């Protein structure tokens, strides 16, 4: 079956789950993805980024949040059990830990090229192949695109079936 991984901040007791970003949990599924959890990690590790609102600098709750902290991509076979210490079998963070996957992914998608690319992919392919946590977030952020993409997939399937008869 293989070993599963997640990105863990040992200093702040926070983590990001690859499924939220549309990645698989195996190491090669994480590192070979052209978008996803590693881009979120990039935001968390960024140093010196300044955001502006109405020409006034504002601090980000995500960008740079993990700079200087002890970070690891941890597998579930690690002897210290860190993988299982942060998240329960129900997928919810254990006491003292925080899953910041959703807020990190939202920051990655909001008003960015990555978000626009994701919208176009959803319009073309729908949500059928998304992990449940990613799908719920996409339906929240890109409602119209999800509905339209899912309808296109359904219509294309029906149209294809009818043409084969």
Brief description of this entry?
Helices cover 44% and strands 13% of the residues. With 165 residues, it is of the alpha+beta class. The protein folds into 2 domains: 1-110, no CATH class; 111-165, no CATH class.
Counting DSSP H or I runs of 4 or more residues, the number of helices is 7
Largest sheet: 4 strands, mixed
The chain-level mean pLDDT equals: 89
Order of helices and strands: EEHHEEEHEHHHH
Class computed from helices, strands and strand pairing: alpha+beta
Using only CA atoms, what is the Rg?
18 Å
What is the helix content? Answer: 40-55%
Distance from N terminus to C terminus (CA atoms, Å) equals 40 Å
Uncertain residue segments: none
The total of beta strands comes to 6
Strand order of the largest sheet: 5-1-2-6
Shape: globular
Domain unit count: 2
How large is the share of residues in beta strands?
A: 5-15%
Commentary on this structure:
The protein is an alpha+beta fold and 165 residues long. Strands 5-1-2-6 form a 4-stranded mixed sheet. It is 44% helix and 13% strand. It folds into 2 domains: 1-110, no CATH class; 111-165, no CATH class. It has helices at 27-31, 37-45, 82-86, 101-109, 113-125, 132-141, 143-164, and strands at 5-9, 14-16, 51-53, 56-58, 71-75, 98-99. A hairpin with a 4-residue loop joins strand 1 (5-9) and strand 2. The chain is built from 7 helices and 6 strands.
């Amino acid at each position: 079956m293989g070993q599963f991984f997640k990105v863990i901040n040992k200093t702040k007791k926070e983590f990001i789950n690859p499924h939220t970003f549309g990645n698989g949990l195996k190491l090669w599924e994480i590192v070979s993805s052209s978008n996803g959890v590693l881009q979120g990690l990039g935001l968390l590790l960024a140093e010196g980024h300044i955001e502006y609102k109405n020409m006034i600098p504002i601090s980000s709750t995500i960008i740079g949040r993990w700079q200087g902290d002890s970070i690891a991509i941890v597998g579930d076979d690690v002897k210290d059990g860190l993988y299982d210490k942060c998240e329960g079998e129900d997928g919810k963070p254990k006491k003292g830990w925080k899953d910041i996957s959703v807020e990190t992914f939202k920051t990655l998608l909001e008003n960015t090229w990555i978000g626009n690319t994701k919208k176009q992919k959803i319009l073309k392919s729908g949500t059928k192949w998304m992990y449940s946590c990613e799908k719920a977030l996409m339906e929240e952020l890109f409602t119209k695109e999800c509905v339209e993409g899912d309808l296109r997939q359904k219509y294309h399937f029906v149209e294809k079936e009818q043409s084969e008869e």
